[in-house]
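Field reference: sequence -> structure
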Amino acid sequence: MKRIIISLLTLIIFANSAFCIEDIRKVYLSEAIEAALKNNLDLQAAEIEVNIAKNNIKSANRLQNPSIDAFYFLGAAGASEPKQIGISEDIEIAKRGARKNLAKSHFELAEKNYAYNKFDLKMDVREAYINLVATKSILDTLEQQKALQEELLEIAKNRVNSKQVPEIDVIQAEITLNQIITQVNTARVEVNTALASFNKIINDPQKIIYDSKDKLFSEENNFEEMLTPAPTSKFPSIDKIIEQAIKNRYDLQIAKQEIDIAEKNLTLVARQRIPDISLSGGYAYQLGKYSNSGNYNNGAYAGASLVNIPLFYNYSPEIQNATYKVQQAELKYASVKNKAIKDVSAAYERFLTAVENLNYYEDKILISSEKMIDISMDSYEKGKSDITSLIVMKQTYKSMIVGYTYALSEYYNSWTNFLRETNDEEFNLNENL
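Structure field:
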């Protein structure tokens, strides 16, 4: 019986533990973007704005609701005037179509804003993913350095035991190892922080933890997997880049749409000067005791009137303000275009610099540094150099590897920044050569 109870308790504890474990999914960059587009709460909220704008078109196209009228005269008036019951309707002149056009323009703006938010989210995911992989790469480099330093410490101990070197070599090796251990601990925290930021960008309400695939930055560099061209690609001139960017940038499309909204608003406001028509009609009757002939008289009545005649107020301030809005929107478009050209140029220059730095690391620095550390380790082990020189070499090598990781990270990030400025996630370099 006791064994059965223990088994049941074990099952309950295991079940509760399994229930609390969050789903961890390792994804490539393209999969991370897909997950964000599907689950991101902010993007879902932005999409609702499109639905609201779509409904506003129906609201703008509405007809005025009618009114039911009844006239029942009392006193002496009741003895001579007929009773009336009918309906009246205000009919807008030249306003409903203008209002609908304005609502359509707002809908198109909402669609462009949503597309911009969607694109911006993709770029944010790229940056967060690259940062996560970069921090993992640095942690991996430091862990490798820790392993090498532990190996060096053992070599130093063996050489001290054999009286080949003084005991200070072991002390120096231990101090360096402890320094690397603290750097590894810090790097682990940075990986966890980058992982949290990555999941914050994806913003999935489910209990899912997204993580990058365990492929670190390396000499093989899967640029295609990171959705980035190889640094050995041919790059077009800035003039062709700017020409294509001006066509695609969402902020320019949005600014142009705001001009359209301002113009349609001016049309609507100007048409407020046009009077509307109020139509009324219905049934009228008079009882026989109130008529001269003594007969029951009945019939229909109809009426029409102009309403909202711009006699005392002609909407001049509103029209003037609407005109200012058009001018303001045109100036904003010109400003956005001017800034866009500068932003694209700066982003492309940053990317080309990152290309140059990365190629320099891969062609010259890395190959030389790897040979340097191998020669230094072998030289110390054979007693041809002291431990201080080897530690300096190892620290230099570590700095080079970390620097290379930063250079590669900057290359990926500068490409993402370039895409953000061109507003084209599938920018094709070959088409612009």
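Note: The mean pLDDT is 84.
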